[in-house]
Amino acid sequence: HARGGESFLSSDRKFGMSLLLLPAAASSFITPNDITSTYQSWLDTSPLLTKAATSSALFAAGDLIAQVTDEESTDVSLGRIARFGGTGFGNGIAWTYWYSFSDELFTPINEPAFRVASAMALEQFIWCPLLFSFYLIPLSAVLNGAEPADLPAEVRKRIGPLLIANARVWTPANLVIYNVPLQYRVLASNVIDLIW
């Protein structure tokens, strides 16, 4: 796929070069405006990779926070952090496509409140059951040592409670997320997820 005459490969090289330039800028004072403009540049240059990497970093940060604040253990598992980061990378890709699909699907609806409500309903009753059943629950189970034969039972056991918890947290959160510009929805979702 080409965009503006450049392939994803060349835009990914630019993204990598941007990463290399960031440490050089760190030697001087970095302002929030610098961070914002750098992030925007990454989004413009390589949107899918940026959103997936953002999701990965925030998933890993969330797990690190959970481990550090766990009163029952003083150990920090780098392997566990890496697993969460990997899960977050795939999650970022999935949500990038979901938000693009839902935005395109509901753009013809002129009333903003109805458009947001429609996207939220489709997410809660169609998208999340699919994502949880075919990605998050099975991946989590496998990473925790489950055998492939155990996955259907694991999904059946966890899907109901997970969807109920999801509705409680994400219904109010989605009122914010679906009003954020499309390119920032994965970031907004990940920040709320980190707090959750």
Query: What's the number of helices?
Result: 7
The termini sit apart by 36 Å
Biggest sheet strand line-up: 1-2
Radius of gyration: 19 Å
The secondary-structure class comes to: mainly alpha
Residue share in β-strands: under 5%
Q: Please write the string of helix (H) and strand (E) elements.
A: EEHHHHHHH
Number of DSSP E strands? 2
Descriptive terms for the model:
196 residues, disordered N terminus, globular, mainly alpha
Question: How is the secondary structure organized here?
Answer:
Blueprint: E1 2-3, E2 6-7, H1 8-26, H2 32-45, H3 47-69, H4 78-106, H5 112-143, H6 151-177, H7 185-195
Antiparallel strand pairs: 1-2
Helix pairs in contact: 1-2, 2-3, 3-4, 3-7, 4-5, 5-6, 6-7
Write a compact overview of the structure shown.
The protein has 196 residues and is an all-alpha fold. It has helices at residues 8-26, 32-45, 47-69, 78-106, 112-143, 151-177, 185-195, and strands at residues 2-3, 6-7.
Question: Would you mind describing this structure in some detail?
Answer:
By secondary structure, the chain is mainly alpha-helical. Helices cover about 80% and strands about 0% of the residues. It has a two-stranded antiparallel sheet. The radius of gyration is 19 Å and the shape is globular.
